[in-house]
Each structure stands twice: as C-alpha cells, then as structure tokens.
Amino acid sequence: KKRKHSEFISSLPRKFEQEKFMEDVKIEFLKYLEISKERNDLKDFYRKDSSESKRLFLEKYQNKDFIFQKP
Fold first, then answer.
1. CA separation, residue 35 to residues 41, 42, 44, 56 (Å)
2. Which residues of 16-51 are buried (b: 16+ CB within 10 A; e: fewer)?
3. E strands, the chain, in order
4. Which of 5, 50, 52, 70 could form a cystine bridge with 46, CB 3.0-4.6 A?
5. Structural domain that includes position 28
C-alpha cells in the first residue's frame, strides 16, 4: 500500500507466523473484492475459494525469505 519496502519489513512482528500472515492476506483479498466479513457470502467465499487463495498464497509466499528481499 504505497509503503517503502523497509517500512513494510520493520512493521512485521518479530515472530513471523505463516498462518496469521495467510489469514491477513485473505482478509485483504476480501476487502479488495469488497466482500464484507459480516456478509453471508463470506462463508461461501471461504468454502469455494479458500483452497484457491491458499494455493495462490503458497505459490507466492511459501518461501518466507521472499518478503525480506529488496524489490
């Protein structure tokens, strides 16, 4: 979100948790799709698309070192 890479890195928690990060990515993806957490279609989203979002996440972020590399 228009932050410098160094600002992003410094904002990461000291203890990186992949599951938490994945959940955060899903929430941001929902926001991008304009799907509210309160809406009923959230359940449908997780049911239908959770496996796809997980696949996309792992494809890009499975190597944690990726987020520590300079752009």
1. 8, 7, 11, 18
2. eeeeebeeebbeeebeeeebeeeeeeeeebeeebee
3. none
4. 50
5. 5-68
**pLDDT number for residue 66:** 54
Q: pLDDT tens digits, residue range 6-54?
A: 666 666 666 667 777 777 777 777 777 766 656 566 666 666 666 776 7
What's the structural domain count of the chain?
A: 1
Alpha-carbon distances, residue 55 vs 23, 59, 60, 68 (angstroms): 13, 6, 9, 21
Residue with tokens 């990461």: 12
Assess contact for 65 and 53: CB atoms under 8 A. no
Residue 10, both tokens: 């410094």
Q: Which residues contact 27 (CB under 8 A, 6 or more apart)?
A: 37
